[in-house]
Amino acid sequence: MDPITLEVPHMLRAPAAAANQGANAHTSSQPIITGTSVLAFKYKDGIMMAADTLGAFGSMARFRDENRFMQVGDTLVGAGGDMSDFQYMKHMLEDMQTREYDMDDGQRMGTRSVYKYVSNVMYGRRNRFDPLWNAYVVGGVEGGERFLGYVNLYGTTYEADCVATGFGAHLAIPMLRKRVEGRADEVTEEEAVAVLDDCMRTLLYRDCQAFNRVRRAKVTARGVEVSEPYALQTDWSIADYVVGYGA
Amino acid sequence: MAGLKPGEINLGTTIMAVKFDGGVVVAADSRTSTGAYVANRVTDKLTKVNDRIYCCRSGSAADTQAVADIVSYHMDLYSSQHGERPTVKVAASLFQEICYQNKDNLSASIIVAGWDEQKGGSVFEIPRGGSLHQQEFAVGGSGSTYIYGFCDKTFRPGMNREECIEFVKNAVGLAITRDGHSGGVIRVAVITKDGVDREIVYGNALPPQYTG
Has B13 been annotated as catalytic? Predict the structure, then answer.
């Protein structure tokens, strides 16, 4: 076991050192405080994303005011999985932005570049058997084109019109595919919000770890906007029809 | 993630911190257990990190003492180098850095609370895993599970100093009764710009509660 070392947190470091830093620090750790689903899809004006504001501690709703989104320039990153590893990734991304700013070369980090960076970190950590226990959704509009990608603790990546993490991958993706996949150019903001809320509502009903305080975020040509948390409407009227269990 | 090793000293615990306008109130029980034996019944789990910042320790007694010692050292160094006290956020970040980077080898769940010139009172929680969460109030340790309901029902933002003290005494008192790993006295410390006021509620003088 290495001795406890305390470098002053998150100073500027050379990229090579930063890439290695933290690796082998926690061999194949387990997630403790976790975020559940993140949903995202392409619509007419860009990308729309949603996630609740819960950091769960196992089955307990422990931290109820988490922000699982991070803005990186004109890109939006949404995170599920271990929140301490997400906080670490946020520091990495901030350091990256500082390095890029200091280079002062007139370049701006586009969404694809941010996605590549996150993916490389995730895969690199996986190869050292020391994963960041997360699933990320990275979305943005680059050169007029919408981009939406997913990357997880294995370093597996894919891009699609609709992506989701956690429970959302099982329950929401089929809904999103039916309603908006392939129709990105036609889906208006109103329709997008309605679809997103429907999916989040389904998750609220069916995911034990879901919480009824949700943030919505969109990325358009104008940049990233993250909403204030809001609560979803729910309908329990079917409860009136169920009496006993059938005996 | 490390758990406690067999026989390792456990700070079972109930710990708590609440923010009010002008500072924070921190509180803890005083039981340290080794398995089922109470190794220390008058422990002080409220640990000074600097003159206006305390941490509440739960988990492994050894781990949390080691981490707190290191953070105190760095806080001293910061004060010498900067000529002023570090903020509560800085202290919490130092705790986080150690707890996160050593997550495989630590069993530590810590609440950091205090007063600084910039923000007044602040409360931060660093659970196992090493994530950092700023809150209006925080509860931690094995006893905390028994009082989430009470705390959620009783807490209101904007309580004053006296209300916060009542709140923590009642909450920790309830947890002490129910949790086998919490017990002894309730230690309370109120931290404001003027300093730290410490108080003790003896185990035979806990706030009234129904005990069956």
Answer: yes
pLDDT tens, residue by residue, B101-144: 999 999 999 999 999 999 999 999 999 999 999 999 999 999 99
- Mutation target to probe the B interface, by most B beta carbons within 10 A, among A32, A57, A59 is A32
**What is the value of pTM for the model shown?**
0.86
User: What is the DSSP secondary structure assignment for residue B151, as one 8-state letter?
Assistant: H
C-alpha span between A50 and A48 (Å, rounded): 7
How deeply is B52 buried, as exposed, middle or buried, from its count of CB atoms within 10 A (0-12, 13-18, 19+)?
Answer: buried
Residue carrying the six token digits 């891009």: A159
Residue B146: which residues within 8 A CB-CB, separation 6 or more? B174, B175, B178, B179
Q: C-alpha angle with apex A204: A202 to A207, nearest 5 degrees? A: 95
SS3 of residue A94 by DSSP: helix
Asked if B63 and B98 count as a contact pair (C-beta separation under 8 A), the reply is no
Q: How far is the alpha carbon of A56 from chain B, nearest alpha carbon, in Å?
A: 11
CB B120 within 8 Å of CB B21: yes
The beta-strand segments (E) located in B61-161 are 108-116, 120-126, 133-135, 137-140
At A46, the amino acid letter reads G
DSSP 3-state percent helix, strand, coil across chain A (nearest 5): 30, 30, 40
Cβ proximity of B52 and B196 under 8 Å: yes
